[in-house]
Amino acid sequence: MAEGKAFNAFEMAQKQFDKVADMIDLDQASRDLLRNPLREFHFSIPVHMDDGSIKVFRGFRCQHNDARGPAKGGIRFHPQETIDTVRALSMWMTWKTAVADLPLGGGKGGVICDPHNLSSREQEQICRGWIRQVYKNVGPISDVPAPDVMTNAQHMLWMLDEYETITGGRYPGLITGKPVGMGGSLGRKEATGYGLIYTVREALKQLQIDPKNTTASVQGFGNVAQFAIELYSKLGGKVTCISCWDQNESRAITYKKADGINLEELQKITDRFGGVEQDKALELGYEALDGEAWLEQEVDILLPCALENQITEDNVEKIHEKVQIIAEGANGPTTPEADKFLDKRNIFVIPDFLANAGGVTCSYFEQVQSNMNYYWSKDEVLKNLDQKMTAAFWAVTNLSDNRSIFMRDAAYIIGIERVAQASKERGWV
Ligand code: GLU
């Protein structure tokens, strides 16, 4: 994890945007519109804690753009959450839904809190309080939240219940990532990790590499990472490392097994946040290395599936020369300075808002199902997901090839042009 220098995700998102706005000669009004969220909400959530005290949590929701459809994006619970991080993430959601060609915009929410130290009841109060503060500004046809870092299906259901209690109806299309059977979609849990690997599978085709001859190193061991490892292993690939946060030591640790990690055995010793019990991992024969060691491994594929600001100018040169593909399961893991190096090294980068679009794509399917109140089979969901991800991957890859530009720039061009066009057609700019 990069430490020391203050990192501002929003500045990074704007820098990425400005670069591509120049490349496509975007008009000034569109730039002014798209550089900032359309709307944002900041609020306080007072919670009566289990010990009798009252704690006030800060919450946010940013709606970056909704020209193509209702704003869409997750809600994060994180102790280091900032409004600028939420702004950046809401902007990346706009490009993500546009690149995946979904009729949606981009939004993001957050609460500054650490669920590791909160009881289930306290978390429920935060969820209900979040909705009480913004229920007038979100909804099935305006802004549809979802899970993100450290939030899950139960959090979504509490939020839905609070919204329905206030508004007096049943509106399962308010929120996605709900439990299956309570308006959730089959395949939603798997969607981001599987979607990531669909794009890796296509990238390997493009590079004419057989997945069976590849190895990968993964940062993170939460929902995205676990399902990515599952599908990548099914394709015949071997994961040799995972890196995850150790709550006791307050640092990340990389667990390595050169002949391949065993997903199921690690899942048995993992908490709900993707933290692995160190003693047990050592007993199982894993080597425990420094948190950043995942990046330095002699593998073909790197899968950053944790947080933003992980591959930076300070560590990018440590990436092993064998690495050919980086597929970003996390949002914003690579800084623009690190990108320059990856571009020079000719590493095939599958940028975040393409690579991890599987989650929101399945959320879109969930919304459609919830609004129809008719639910599809898991096979149908995953088949449609694969189709959408594969189409988005090739649209970006073909543009990158045709114009000889970096994959991230190609993805940005598609995303920005679609949103700028929708904003123009509406007569906004
Ligand atoms: N939080 C996920 C993301 O960053 C999913 C968002 C959604 O499903 O709306 O893409």
Topology as a string of helices (H) and strands (E): HHEEEHEHEHHEHEEHHEEEHEHHHH
Helix tally?
14
What is the percentage of strand-forming residues? Answer: 15-25%
Measured as a percent range, the helix fraction is 40-55%
Average residue pLDDT: 97
Identify the overall geometry.
globular
As laid out across the biggest beta sheet, the strand order is 9-8-7-6-10-11-12
Report the sheet with the most strands, covering strand number, pairing sense and barrel closure. Answer: 7 strands, mixed
Using the coordinates above, name the CATH class of the largest domain: Alpha Beta
Q: Count the E strands.
A: 12
Question: Which spans of ≥5 residues are poorly predicted at pLDDT below 50?
Answer: none
Could you say which structural class the secondary elements and strand pairing correspond to? alpha/beta
What is the CATH homologous superfamily assignment of the largest domain?
NAD(P)-binding Rossmann-like Domain
Question: Would you give the CATH topology of the largest domain?
Answer: Rossmann fold
- Distinct ligand kinds: glutamic acid
CATH architectural arrangement of the largest domain: 3-Layer(aba) Sandwich
Taking all Cα atoms into account, the compactness measure Rg is 20 Å
Rounded to the nearest angstrom, the distance between the terminal CA atoms is: 40 Å
Domain count: the total is 2
